[in-house]
Amino acid sequence: MAPIQDTIINKKTTNTPIWLMRQAGRYLPEFREIRKLNPNFVNLCLNEDLSSEITLQPLKRFELDAAIIFSDILMLPYGLNQKIEFKKDFGPQLGPLNLNEILKIDEIDFFQKLYPIYKSIEKVSRNNLIKNKNLIGFVGAPWTLLVYMINKCSPKKKLIKDFFKDKFLINRILIIVEKFLKLHINHQIKNGATVIQIFDSWAGLLEEKDLPNYVYIPTLNLVNYVKSLNTPVICFPREIKNYKNYCDIVKPDAISIDYSVDPISISREINIPIQGGLDPKVLLSSAENLKKETLKYLEIFKDHPYIFNLGHGVLPETNPNMVDYLVKMVKDY
Ligand code: 1CP
Predict the structure, then answer these.
(1) pLDDT tens across 230-254, in order?
(2) How do residues 7-34 score in pLDDT, each as one tens digit?
(3) How wide is the angle at C-alpha 255 spanned by C-alphas 318 and 9, nearest 5°?
(4) Ligand 1 centroid to 114 CA: how many Å?
(5) Largest CA distance in the chain
(6) What is the DSSP letter of 327?
(7) Is the shortest distance between the CB of 307 and ligand 1 below 6 Å?
(8) Distance 156 CA to ligand 1 centre (A)
(9) Each residue of 46-90: pLDDT tens digit?
């Protein structure tokens, strides 16, 4: 069994596996080279030759235990015909959200629009570099997708003023998004994804009272769906205040923690496999500091099923040599 699954399913506590969020991305010169020639990010995600090549780039350099498919959570609104553009130095910019347009989409239209992503997964899964490793498929959680679809751009720290005004629209969108997320997950697994990660990057924007409606219930539905396909599911509810409550209610197979979480308390509170935590900014500091912080996480979780990862994605200004140093350290531990 490949290492990430082994830690999650068999609750293994030795030979901590490692992969990194955004391990394929702008900190790699070989990615930037491809990106320069492909200014349209959506088209790049839909180019099965290039997206499979980018997915494998970090595995050529580092001894990672998994690849994560090169795509984006916002390919889902794209599949639902909401316009989406990734602008330089700004991030994603979405077009108008039209419920009538979205209601016209059927499962075949959606599948055809995202078809190259599934082909890319299939291609990666047949590559020798992924042998005995995991191929991670992913989706955005319904709440995080709703945020982008309504807000039209990154909420950074704030939602638009009237975000919750049209409750009817919000509830309809959540139901539609959930339906197509299940389809998207199913096709990723059918084509070779062996683990699914659900990114709820904006879970931390909600107050406690809104979590059941927007985070717990819709995510629980997805988690149950992934489990029904006999595939392990990892959840990343970034900056949520109470990870223990989240785990008790949503019951993912593993939980990915952000860097604001105290690793000691979480290792005591939560008994499911844990992933991540290290602040990606530590990779911008010295090798000495990176070693100290990495050993801290490894020590704290030495008797807990643990997957090494960061508390958020690798930053674009990261030196690949530091990533190399990190991966080697975890492997040698
Ligand atoms: O070159 C570029 O300008 C593109 C940068 C980039 C990349 C490399 C974007 C735009 N998306 C991606 C790939 C990506 N996105 C992957 C696969 C690669 C990998 O991890 O190795 C994954 C898993 C994602 C997931 C994603 N996209 C999330 C969840 C994780 C997180 O970062 O919190 C989110 C929120 C997005 C939206 C998004 N896409 C891109 C950007 C810059 C953003 C974030 C915008 C924001 O700050 O709100």
Answers:
(1) 999 999 999 999 999 999 999 999 9
(2) 999 999 999 999 999 999 999 999 999 9
(3) 110
(4) 17
(5) 56
(6) H
(7) no
(8) 13
(9) 999 999 999 999 999 999 999 999 999 999 999 999 999 999 989
- Dist CA 298 CA 13 (whole Å): 11
Domains of the chain: 3-332 (3.20.20.210)
Token pair 């970034």 is at which residue? 238
Considering only CA atoms, which residue is closest to atom 34 of ligand 1? 73
Q: Where are the beta strands (DSSP E) in the chain?
A: 66-68, 84-87, 91-94, 134-140, 195-199, 233-236, 254-257, 274-276, 306-307
User: 């409606």: which residue's tokens?
Assistant: 213
Pull the structure tokens for residue 11: 């609750």
CB 86 near ligand 1, within 6 Å: yes
Asked whether the whole model's pTM tops 0.90, one would answer: yes
- Both tokens assigned to 97: 């959200």
Which residue type is seen at 270? I
Tokens of 288: 């000495």
What the block records as the tokens of 313 is: 């994605």
